[in-house]
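Q: what sequence does this backbone want?
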């Protein structure tokens, strides 16, 4: 009985470490972290950014698995939502940039002068969609 529980714990921990390592290497490999550091001219802190990304993932998992209560969590949640949305948006843009989605789309749709407006429209649409989603959840 104990041996089985220990074996399951070791297998689960090993699988979790493997998946998390793959995810964070994917995030860093996409260039999300380095691209943000480059655009903000803070490239000398790249190792700090990578460590913060990994630490955030680990803390998020610990809070989720062990159901750790965060004091004043309802007040911190909107701030977390903004930062999480920015991160996911940057991640999606980096993935799209790696796959050359936008240059191909811009050439085919002939949107040379409208690129900033298209990006702004996508951002506003995502923001309004998230707002509608969360207002619907809070209302019920």
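A:
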């Amino acid at each position: 009985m104990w041996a089985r529980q220990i074996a399951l714990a070791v297998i689960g921990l090993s699988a979790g470490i493997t998946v998390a390592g793959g995810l964070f290497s994917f995030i860093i490999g996409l260039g999300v972290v380095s691209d943000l550091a480059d655009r903000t001219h803070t490239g000398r802190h790249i190792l700090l950014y990578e460590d913060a990304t990994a630490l955030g993932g680990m803390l998020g998992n610990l809070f989720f698995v062990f159901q750790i209560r965060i004091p004043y969590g309802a007040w911190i949640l909107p701030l977390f939502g903004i930062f999480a949305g920015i991160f996911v948006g940057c991640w999606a843009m980096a993935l799209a940039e790696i796959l050359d989605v936008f240059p191909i789309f811009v050439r085919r749709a002939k949107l040379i002068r409208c690129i900033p407006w298209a990006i702004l429209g996508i951002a506003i649409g995502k923001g309004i969609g998230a707002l509608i989603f969360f207002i619907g959840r809070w209302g019920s």
